[in-house]
Amino acid sequence: MTAFSYFEPTFTGFFLGASLIIAIGAQNAFVLRLGLQRQHVFAVALVCALSDALLILAGVAGMGALVKRYEILLQLITWGGFAFLFVYGLQAFLRAMKNEHMDAVKGEQMSLKKALLTVLAFTYLNPHVYLDTVVLVGGLSAQWQGAAQAAFAFGAVSASFVWFFSLGYGARILTPIFEKPIAWRVLDILIGCIMWLLALSLVFSDF
Length: 207
Description:
mainly alpha
């Protein structure tokens, strides 16, 4: 195969990966908030992208069948994810109720350890991430073989890196808007709603 023949699987993987991660979800909302506050953006974006890469490569390697076989694992992740999303959503609502000004640059300080543990929880306590990356992406990668399959995986992984770093560092463009306290309150209300809706969707989804 020529170098040009690898473009199709690469771009297919890229756009598939992008379509799965570019959505208003718990992980993206958290990265956006840290991006606005300019806290640990590089580390958090890197962990998000590397986590996607790990799951995508696991799917391409054939672990999708294993995930579908042991449904009890997805059930445990589902209930753990529900509890985590519910608590985080409650915290967002409580922040919105506080009549406090939050500086868009400084914000509420969060330690690097807490930021990384939180984003890891958002990632690995979400059963959809296993169904999307391991099962779906892994299954679709089977239409290619050898180097072409590797190109497909590279495209999907690249989409994650491009998205999370763009989201984290691009959030500062919105800084003028979030200089107003009301903007932070609206954001936290939206985040709270997103977390609780996602929590409910986990419970009522049929895995």
